[in-house]
Amino acid sequence: MIKIGLLSDTHGYVDEAVFRHFESCDEIWHAGDFGDVAVADTLAAFKPLKGVYGNIDGADIRKTYPEHLRFTCEAVDVWMTHIGGYPGRYSPQVRPEILHHPPKLFICGHSHILKVMYDQKLQCLHLNPGAAGKQGWHQVRTLLRFSIHDSRIEHLEVIELAGR
């Protein structure tokens, strides 16, 4: 079993509470818009980090983190990208691939809107952790924490941080 801390859209800011909430996690996954390479370095120094770059990230982030990251965690096919849309409204750049080769878990950020949705048609769980940073129009900063055990995604928790 692997316990995951998921965040996105930090925009150069990491709340100290993230470290407390992710203390029990085995890995941290960041769904783009780090905002600063220092954010990635700080998270990677705390726990193993997987991430993708977002639309505001510069060349320093893009050298290390890809636009799309597809990997297997336990027995779960995971696809993480920053701009992905959501069930019924996938973005044009991911739509052909997700319809033909859907993952079991699809993660994106970008919207600053926390979403947990199951796509019945594709048999795929969609997660967007909302925004953990202070920039943007969101009112509450959010994180997700969950476990992957064999082929199951379990113990999903929404964590609300202070307002931005």
Notes on the structure:
- The protein has 164 residues and is of the alpha/beta class.
- It has four helices and twelve strands.
- Strands 3-2-1-11-12 form a five-stranded mixed beta sheet.
- A hairpin with a 4-residue loop joins strand 9 and strand 10.
- The longest helix is centred in the N-terminal third of the chain and has 10 residues.
- The radius of gyration is 14 Å and the shape is globular.
- The protein starts with a strand and ends with a strand.
Give the tags.
164 residues, alpha/beta, 5-stranded mixed beta sheet, 4 helices
| C-alpha geometry | globular
**Unreliable sequence segments:** none
Query: How many runs of DSSP E, i.e. beta strands?
Result: 12
Oligomer: single chain
Report helical residue fraction: 10-25%
The number of helical runs is: 4
Biggest sheet architecture: 5 strands, mixed
Give the end-to-end Cα distance, rounded to a whole number of Å: 33 Å
Structural category: alpha/beta
Mean pLDDT: 96
Give the neighbour order of strands across the main sheet: 3-2-1-11-12
Q: How much of the polypeptide forms β-strand, as a percent range?
A: 35-45%
